[in-house]
Amino acid sequence: MNTVVADITYRAMLGRKRIWLLVLLPVALVAIAALLRLLNGESEQTAVTLMKTFAIGTMLPLLGLIGGTGVIAPEIEDGTIIHLLSKPISRPVIAVTKFVVAASLIAVFAAVSTFAAAYLLTGTESGVATGFTLGALFGGVAYAAVFLLLGVLTRHAVAIGVIYALVWEGVVGGYVPGARKFSIQQWAQSLADQISSSAFFSTEVTLGFAVPAMVIVTVGAVLWTGQRLRSLSLTGDD
Amino acid sequence: MTTTSPPVTTRQGVLELAQVSRWYGNVVAVNDVTMTIGPGVTGLLGPNGAGKSTLLHMMAGFLAPSNGTATLDGRQIWHNHDIYRQIGLVPEKEAVYGFLTGRQFVLSAARLHGLPSPADAARRALDLVEMTEASGRRIETYSKGMRQRVKVAAALVHDPQVLLLDEPFNGMDPRQRLHLMDLVRRMGEEGRTILFSSHILEEVERVAHHIEVLVAGRHAASGDYREIRRRMADRPHRFRVRSSDDRRLAAALIADLSSSAVSLTEQGIEVQVTDFARFTALLPRTARDLDVHLWQVSPTDEDLESVFSYLISGSAR
Known about the structure:
The complex is a heterodimer.
Chain A: H1 3-14, H2 18-40, H3 44-70, H4 73-78, H5 82-85, H6 91-122, H7 128-153, H8 157-175, H9 177-180, H10 184-195, H11 207-230
Chain B: E1 15-24, E2 27-37, E3 40-45, H1 52-59, E4 67-72, E5 75-76, E6 87-90, H2 102-112, H3 118-128, H4 144-156, E7 162-165, H5 174-189, E8 193-198, H6 201-207, E9 210-215, E10 218-223, H7 225-234, E11 237-243, H8 246-254, E12 259-265, E13 268-273, H9 276-290, E14 294-299, H10 304-316
Parallel strand pairs in B: 3-8, 3-9, 6-7, 7-8
Antiparallel strand pairs in B: 1-2, 1-4, 4-5, 9-10, 11-13, 11-14, 12-13
């Protein structure tokens, strides 16, 4: 961890207009929950559906994409990253710092809004709110690492990230059972399922697979990011 | 009898490129360049696209040579982040964190270097580039020249032995340019190793005591600026002349030794000049004597590319 790198990165992410990218989806989630509560009253089933499809299924990967690529990809694109890299700081330390910033932002925005939305709909019934909050928290951390890596691997991180989130996790994961094992979204859900006792909710991926997978993917992606940064080449205009 | 050579004092801040090449796929950006850059100001001169940035990036540790080695005081630069204790880098790209103030930006550089008193170091660096007054404003409000200076301040904050600047005078107004040139010269006199790239000869010769010329990725010439200047003036020139009587004027010009070839074309006379000084004196005199009016006299090969390609052919001889 390097506090100066973290400070600059937080400022870049939270300053001015960019914060709206992070705020928009969580606000939408809470607003939808409030609306459903007003129209239908408390409903555990509604809560579980909203959590599965919107909180974990849509908001989490998109926040992961915004946060994970956002902490590094724009800086590589416009060359400002030179300011950090031309200093006697090891590149893996810079990678870890960027990861911590991304993970903390995603975790906070995703987890807080997930809890608020679930609580609005079911209170503390069946541990739905707590379960999905933890799922969003750890899923968000894994997404942060994966999309951070994507941000240093390719200049088309956002496009590839969107395709991954929508096509792989959304479509393939939805219809091809085997693909679900390799989906951060499914891991986050199995964590939620473990804690929640709701009858409206069951997952296929076991916790015994999901937790180690999440840890391996997160640690691996951060280490790889560090190695990749060590060899980051900047080409001039000529 | 044995002679003992004096102890070799290890000079600090010597950049060395040994047979360095860099290619991107099939395109060779830098081709087998060997050069040593020591203390003082060195200008890296070459037309756009000559590979100056590529070379500078390899010296700054932001690009691995495809072949050969780039070292600073014998230590490898690539994959060595400790090297930045000695190197200050001013990249060409204008982008800096616009949301920071000038002071915050320079202070962050001092902190990233882990300096003992970062605030003092930042103040000194901002003073040096005369940016103290504007340092409380966000960088996004700065002019191009101010951004450039604040980048220089950030690069100087740790008092590096080596300073690398990529096209530092680009986009500056004349006053800012003079000020930065003065600063660069002064730092060179203090014994720092300073290398800056430029595609403008006048810029380079005003600041650098030593010039390295890069053309099409190859090391075309190296030396004192007077030497480079002389070789540039000595080269054969081509002129196009349009007059009221091209044929008569052409006959008189070829009769003199200052030209090696004269041809009549639709657009006027093309003259290959071998003695520049003599030709420039001869032309108006001859025109007056023959009572021929000169409509146009223009060099056809004054662009940098042809000057540089002449230098390459000269160094190949």
